[in-house]
Amino acid sequence: MELAAIYDSPLGPVMLASDGDALTVLRLGTMGETNTIDAIDSIEIFRITRCWLDLYFSGRCPDFLPPLKPCGTVFQQRVWQALMEIPYGETTTYGAVARRVGCRSAQAVGQAVGRNPIAIIVPCHRVVGSDGSLTGYAYGVEKKRHLLQLESCYRLTVAG
Questions:
Q1: Which among 9, 42, 52, 100 is least surrounded, fewest beta carbons within 10 Å?
Q2: Out of 51, 71, 124, 153, which one is annotated catalytic?
Q3: Alpha-carbon distance 51 to 22, whole Å?
Q4: HEC-encoded secondary structure of the chain
């Protein structure tokens, strides 16, 4: 059974979903979810995620991760794991991620990045165009810019 809760962030509501043990979805905004719980702290995984998000949105790098279980293909999982390796406060390019996962196509990586079901924690916002431009973000470039400014990394510093 999928559980859902809403976290109120500086970017607006954030929808969290869980299988009860791990976070399966974190997306900015809501899609009219009706099965959300009222008290985010009533479920352990949501309490842990709220703590992580509170730290993150206060401008600090959390030193822990909630249990995560993003659902995707083997290739997507490899890309999302590579995203997790981008240090807080740094950015990288789609091409660099492609090289890291052994893929020739930055476009294929871009598609996998765009399907990331756990935004912010799996930091797809840290991937930028080869010229440092803020290309593509499922939630809009302004939110991507806000997240990068929060991490003080709105500059091209290629990791990996």
A1: 42
A2: 124
A3: 15
A4: CCEEEEEEECCEEEEEEECCCCEEEEEEECCCCCCEECCHHHCHHHHHHHHHHHHHHCCCCCCCCCCECCCCCHHHHHHHHHHHCCCCCCEEEHHHHHHHHCCCCHHHHHHHHHCCCECCCCCHHHEECCCCCCCCCCCCHHHHHHHHHHCCCCCCCECC
d(CA 13, CA 29): 5
pLDDT tens digits, 113-152: 999 999 999 999 999 998 888 887 889 999 999 999 999 8
pLDDT tens digits for range 69-119: 999 999 999 999 999 999 999 999 999 999 999 999 999 999 999 999 999
- Residue 61 annotated to the active site: no
